[in-house]
Amino acid sequence: MAKVELRGITKIFNGTVAVRKTDLEICDGEFMVLVGPSGCGKTTTLRMVAGLEMPSDGMILIGEKDVTYAEPKNRDIAMVFQSYALYPHMTVYENMAFHLKIKKMDKKEIDERVQNAAALLGLSNYLARYPKQLSGGQRQRVALGRAIVRQPQVFLMDEPLSNLDAKLRVQTRAELIKLHQKLKTTFIYVTHDQTEAMTMGTRIVVMKDGKIQQVGTPAEIYNHPANLFVATFIGSPAMNLLEGTLTRETDHLLRFCGNGISVQFPNTDLKIDNNSKVLLGIRPENMNIYPVENNPNFNDSCLRCMVEVVEHIGSEAILHTRTEHQEYMIIKIPGHAKIPAVGAQIQAQIFYGKTHLFDADSGNKLCTRSYGAVENC
Ligand code: ATP
After folding, report:
1. CA–CA separation, 119 and 91 (whole Å)
2. What is residue 371's predicted lDDT score, i.e. its pLDDT?
């Protein structure tokens, strides 16, 4: 087990900045997930921790030891890749034992470690099989077993579930969480899948264009996104954004005015120019819907919308709607609710207490309204 630290890490490939001036501290025993769109620099970051790429600048420490330029084999890490990279001519047992044999470990010790890892991963009955005789999920478990037997200080995983079908991915996700709970070792896990990040990470690093956008627990990232990118990247369907202006009404009150909507933000601290251009962020689940002619709670946080598409997902329904002012709005309602038909006019009432304000130019968050309280950035 070990803490991993990146200090001012930059990686430039032939003039392309893949990772820029990154500082990150991953605590001992943490399950840290790096997430972001393709090309944002997550794999490069992981490969630098593994020693498979050398940083152009900065320092990497594992367990307080400077390993910036150390060989991968001297870092006490084990990496699991998207492609399982098993040796096809070796049995499961031989695949798992391979690195230990190279290290000339005692046969009895090797056997003990392989048997223990196989039991942990439910592979005990498959040790004599060859990779081609296994399912995708079993192969991925062998790849994990090969990492586990090395008893590394840090596990590095690069999209290890992406070759599995949807059902198996969900199962294996849960197995990896259990594995982390049992081993209590530091995990660094790369994915572009925000559901994986949200369900597996004890903390998440959201990256874009080689830069960290936010580091936090899944709840922090979801409920308090630092900027527009994080707000719209995490959460499915994505957060709705309504254009408008922000004006200070009194010492204690800000007012967002958009197309057909007005929302108050009790706030004393935020320094703004009146009529600043902002975006109001509302998650799809943070709205109630009513028939237009029968809304007992009608007020100025209600928007009239026309339903364009309805997606029935069983436990919930996703309504793709358009406001009177032609703004696109997605609303998520429980599957047991009365689901409006395509073409229906509805009133969407925004939960006052769950809205976010972003600066329209910089994309930075200005404040979040979290029920009664308003938190500035
Ligand atoms: P993906 O999810 O698609 O794997 P990623 O977030 O892991 O993407 P990286 O693979 O780290 O992104 O790539 C970051 C940037 O660095 C990209 O612009 C990529 O083209 C570039 N890059 C990565 N490896 C190399 C390389 N060996 N040579 C040149 N450019 C590279």
Report:
1. 16
2. 54
The order of strands in the sheet holding 57-62 is 16-26, 4-13, 57-62, 65-66
Atom of ligand 1 at shortest range from CA of 19? 14
pLDDT number for residue 52: 93
Cα distance between residue 178 and residue 200, in whole Å: 10
Ligand 1 pocket test, pick from 11, 43, 161 with the greatest ligand atom count within 8 Å of Cβ, gives: 43
Sequence-ordered list of residues with C-beta below 8 angstroms from that of 60, at least 6 positions apart, any chain: 4, 5, 6, 7, 9, 48, 49, 66, 67, 68
Q: Please say whether the beta carbons of 117 and 110 come within 8 A.
A: no
86, burial (CB in 10 Å: exposed 0-12, middle 13-18, buried 19+): buried
Ligand 1 atom closest to residue 36's alpha carbon, by position in its atom list: 6
What's the pLDDT score for residue 297? 67
CA 44 to ligand 1 centroid distance, Å: 6
Cα–Cα distance for residue pair 227/364, rounded to 1 Å? 4
Ligand 1 center from residue 19 Cα (angstroms)? 9
Task: Classify residue 34 as exposed, middle or buried by CB count within 10 Å of its CB (0-12, 13-18, 19+).
Answer: buried
User: At 75, which amino acid appears?
Assistant: R
The set of residues, in sequence order, having a beta carbon less than 8 Å from that of 265 and lying 6+ positions away, is 246, 253, 254, 255, 256, 355, 357, 367, 369, 374
Q: Which residues of the chain have pLDDT under 50?
A: 372, 376-377
Q: How far apart are CA 284 and CA 261, in angstroms?
A: 16
Q: What is the dihedral of CA 168, 173, 177, 183, to 10 degrees?
A: 70
pLDDT in tens, 229-269: 999 999 999 999 999 999 998 888 889 999 888 888 887 67
User: What pTM was estimated for this model as a whole?
Assistant: 0.90
The verdict on the CB of residue 48 being under 6 Å from ligand 1 is no
What does the alpha-carbon distance between residue 184 and residue 59 come to, in Å, rounded to a whole number?
Answer: 25
Q: Which two tokens stand for residue 100?
A: 């230990």
- How many residues does the structure list for the chain? 377
pLDDT digits (tens, 9 = 90+) for 154-188: 999 999 888 778 887 888 888 889 989 988 999 99
Given this model, what pLDDT does residue 266 score? 81
